Amino acid sequence: MFLSLRKISLTVAITVGSLAFAQNYSAHSHNDYEQKVPFWYALGAGATSIEADVYLVDNELYVSHEKKDIYKQRTFDNLYLKSIEKALELGIIKDQPIQILVDLKTEGESTLKKIVAEISKYPKITAQKNISFVISGNKPSPEKFTAYPDFIQFDYQSLQNLTPQQWQKVGLLSLNFKDYSVWNGKGGLTEEDLPKVTEVIKKAKSFKKPFRFWAIPDGKTSWEFFAHAGVDFINTDHPKECAEYLKNLDKRTFRNTLTSEVYQPKFLYENKNIPVKNVILLIGDGNGLSQISSSVLANKGQLTLTQLKNIGLIKTTAADNFTTDSAAGASAFATGKKTKNRFIGVDPSGKAVPNMTEILSEKGFSTGIITTDEIVGATPSAFYAHQKDRGMEKEIASDLVKSRLNFFAAGGKSKVSGLNNFQVAENAKEIADNTAERLAYYFSDNGVPQILKGRGNLLAETVENGLEFLKNKKKPFFMMIEGAQIDSGGHANNVGTIVTEGIDFDRAITKAIQFADQNPGTLVVITADHETGGFSIPHGDMATSTIEGDFTTDDHSATLIPVFSYGSGAENFTGVYENNEIFHKILKSLKIK
């Protein structure tokens, strides 16, 4: 029989340094006792705040959401105090701060007295200077705060000022979000609510205490808003998902400063039926629609790419796989045949297939390749090599020596030997006016640095000079240009790499479009071999060029890929078709069977 039934809602907020994030915001496991494994689930997930509703019955604290659901073994002592002590013994909790928030829903003084007594049974806990208990709800008045032990602090639920002594006993400042907005967590706050919410957060933070809203919407959009708005403890019924989201939020959020100056194409080729004589194929490795979108939004909403009118979509599946790799994807572009992943310029049986540069060289074209990858990388090698595995770098390098290329610029100098039939340029400026029959320019001995690691404007400068070099041959030409490291950003789940490599790729696109405007009869085709990372853009800020990205994988995906085209023959590239049709459409535009 219950002698007296006193309900307290006990919120345990645990900040664990080794599991805590570098950021100031932390996940709060709302109603943690309803998780399958209370305390330990949230702790292991990386949540830094844990909540438990507790009833005081027959001088015992039971953890339960409702009185009728009380189970005698589920005490606050068993679920939380013993667990904290065990975590200390195991070294899971060391010097990191731990805060326990106790929300008293019934008469305050007797309930608090019992809580103090229970905690005092654990000297290993009370001896820890980093462990404190914060009392909320029906707590004593601020005037009585100082009467309680050092391990007891208080949750203050007002924006009224206190004395310095009273503030010393405040561990947390909490407010009801619904007092300021009815936002459901979808989209954004209304223009009316946003200033109210931001102002109250600013006011709360001015007291220099950790701040919490309760009764907030529970989802990624909400978590992102409150984290970036300055809320320290973020309530959630999904501690694992929320903690993981918050842990990686800063990593996934990138503020861009790189720009691509947008060029307005002239579209002089329209309605003029000018024959195609030059083709520039630009491949953004891993550059799916979300990658393109991130660069657009980070570049103040426009790229040179987005000024183009002719747009199509390609399907990218390989001959043996639902999702292509770069070798099979580029081989489809280069040979017109789908092949197996890892295959370079060979059909699914391993038989060599003539590629674009070989076919066009026989037709009197000059040919060239520019890539921010090594020259033996999968995409560039598909346009000159024939091997059964992209990892056969020595054999691929040997194919380069035997190739019909007139020009290439890439990294990977150390991977190539015996290239005596190529003159080597020392810098990009030497390329345009060079009269050599065959010319190479190495960006690096091995891998090419990323934009974020100091590559500068090397790609666009090389494109501009490389196109002039081929033009000066006084012959029609084919040039493949690869922005290779958008793909690297997708594999690494690095938003900054995706955004900056995409913007740099647009600077190369600008040079190609400008060349087409200055040289009638030039066809520019811009696409990608595949998408990488399952990338999406849930949030951002165009005013500050800030992008928050998210990922579903660290590998390629099979999503359809955009194709942009400009110049004579651009109309051939609209519609939805297989990736190997790029090859056939280029030859059709050149009127080559």
Automatic annotation (TrEMBL):
Pfam families: Alk_phosphatase. Zn(2+) binds at residues 285, 487, 491, 529-530. InterPro entries: AIM6_PI-PLC-like_dom (IPR039559), Alkaline_phosphatase (IPR001952), Alkaline_phosphatase_core_sf (IPR017850), PLC-like_Pdiesterase_TIM-brl (IPR017946). Its cofactor is Mg(2+); Zn(2+). Keywords: Magnesium, Metal-binding, Phosphoprotein, Signal, Zinc. Mg(2+) binds at residues 285, 379, 482. This is Alkaline phosphatase. One of its GO terms (biological process) is lipid metabolic process. The keyword ATP-binding does not apply. PANTHER family: ALKALINE PHOSPHATASE. It comes from Chryseobacterium arachidis. Belongs to the alkaline phosphatase family.
